[in-house]
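Researcher: Going back to the complex we discussed earlier. I've cleaned up the inputs and rechecked each line, so this should be the final set. Can you rerun the prediction on the complete assembly and write out the structure?
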Amino acid sequence: MKQAAFLRRALALLGHDVRRETRQSQALAGSLLYLVAGVFAAQLLLRPVGPAAWLTFYWLLVLFVSIYTISRSFLGQSRGLHLYYRVSVPGVAWWLTKVMTGTLMLWVLMGFCAMLMALWMGYPIQDTGLFLLTLLLGAPMLVTVLTLVSAMSQGSSQPAQLMPVLGFPLLVPGLLLVHRISKLALDGLSWDLAWTYALALVGLNLMLLALGVLLFPFLWRD
Amino acid sequence: MNASPTPKSLHPAIQWMAVLLLFYSFLMGWLGDVPRKVILNESVRNLYFHVPMWFGMLLMLLGSAVYSVRYLLFQQSTDDTQAQSLGLVGLLFGFLGLVTGMVWAQFTWGAWWSGDPKQNASAVGLLLYLAYMVLRSSFEDAQRRARMAAVYNVLAFFCLIPLLFILPRLTDSLHPGNGGNPGFSAYDLDGRMRWVFYPAVLGWTLTGWWMANLWARYRTLSNRAPLPLSKS
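Model: Rerun complete. Updated structure for the full complex:
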């Protein structure tokens, strides 16, 4: 009974956060425009583009757009709204909600970025299934780290500069794994090797999620 | 603001032990007998200087993370100062480890930097803790700074583990102990080296602990002293 009530509340919270994001649709539109401008500039500069360069550019752009998008999850919030959430929602529930909303948004952005690049720069990926698996597992990795970093840098004297400085080194292990798997997808190699990396990535995601459960209430406290 | 207590100074026995162990490891490290190996030659002595840096760094950073957890649990500003000092000494050890490794790589691999997974991982590790220092410097409020820094420190330590221990194993590396290269367990079989290596590790660790302790005491006292231009 208690679990059911908790689940209902968590779903309500998720629904609320997703609705908030879609209502303030200019924010998500900003991220989409970021991608359009980025890919368009790149296809003018990188011509002709090799498969390895395509993949590297894809992940760099996804990294930048995710920093841009996730940084809004706390930095853009007004003081009053922040206070309201803090008294009405427990930290852990808020953490899980933020991760889920962020992951959903990042999946949209990653897919959009791949489509734009396929349109303007060609589509060198040979194993689309494996590539989709990379996106599926890569998004929570980016979101967990960046949400924590965004919550950490709010209230500092230069939050916008702090995001990349703190985020890049923390994201390196995950990005290395993601890049390895998608390189295999690019070359269309067998999934045997990919499973090892994918499992490592799942492990990393679970570790980050658990760390967030433990650490987020301290960031939330204010 | 009430003054926080100064951390206790390290017991003199530990200080003397650190000095003696380092003296012994330097003496035996330069003059002791080492096995003759092709390519490695005398550079095998780097085991006494380079590897203890990494052991020392990891222990310092582990200690720093433990103090950060303690800070989150009990909110004592001394714990925050200890975490910062241990982090600084860990950063110093990491930097020295990278430099000693690069000198060794120049003579054995033929290049200062060859993008080896171990080299990359340690460079990112240094970035992680440099970012920790940047994070500390960008908060005005001391309590908020301590809390954010503690959270970041724990996160950074957990991200360092896959970086140093798991990812290098997924790729080929030239580093001893990886990809079929003889690790230090192979040299370990040569008992003579073990008798210098372990004391060196212990000596550097104790020295690092001592340095962090001095730094923490200095920080606590200088925070307490009024600044020359501030109104008292």
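Model: Worth noting: The mean pLDDT of chain A is 87.
Researcher: Good, that matches what I expected from the previous run.
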